[in-house]
Every structure is written in structure tokens, then in C-alpha cells.
Amino acid sequence: EVQNLNQQLEEKNVEIQQMINQPPYEKEREILRLQKTLAEREKAQATSDVLCRSLTDETHQLQRKLASTAEMCQHLAKCLEEKQRKEKGNSDDQISTERSNQVFLQLLYNETSLQALICNLQEENRMLKQKVAHV
Question: Which residues are the signal sequence here (predicted)?
Fold first, then answer.
């Protein structure tokens, strides 16, 4: 094991000597290449950060919209129940009740659509974070 380690050490010493003996322009070329690679990675990281922040902001906006839609649905449901209690039996009232039900169902559909959109955005956000971590 010691001989193996000594051999690895010698190989590393030879590698270091080769680097030291390289002409200066090759060293500079390698430094420039590494700096360029670093700059590209930093740029990609910055772009990913901006995208993640944007998606996070959009997710928060959609969550607020969803909460207000849910609140509106609850309010409409209460109004509908009160209206049904007060005006039970009139056919005209039944028509308006049906309209209210349609509005309520449409709001529920919108809420479901918003929830699906939020789920999709959260999944996309998760995937972008994985890509950022990979980069």
C-alpha cells in the first residue's frame, strides 16, 4: 500500500513538473479557458436564479388569487344558501338560483384550474432547482 501511494505521489510530482515546464502561453491559455468556463457557469447560475425568483413570485401571486377565489366561492355559497332559504318555492327564484349555481360552479372550476396551474408551476420550479443544482 505504501509503495502504491509512493507511486501515485511520483506520478503527481511528474504531472506538476510537466505543468511547471509548460511554456507560459500554454499556462495562460489554460487559465483563460478556466476563467471562461467559470464565467459561463456564473452566468447560467444567475439566469437560473432569476428564473427561480420569477417562478416563486408567480407562484405566490397565483396562491393569493386562489385564496381570494376560494373566499369568493365561500361567500357566494353562503349567499346562495341564504337566498334559497328566503325565497323557497318561487320559480323565478329557482331560475336566479340556477344562475347563482352556474356562477358558483364556474368559480369552482376556476379554482380547480388555478390549483392545477400552481401544481404545474411548483413542479417546474422544482425541476429548475434541480437543474440549477446540477449546473
Answer: none
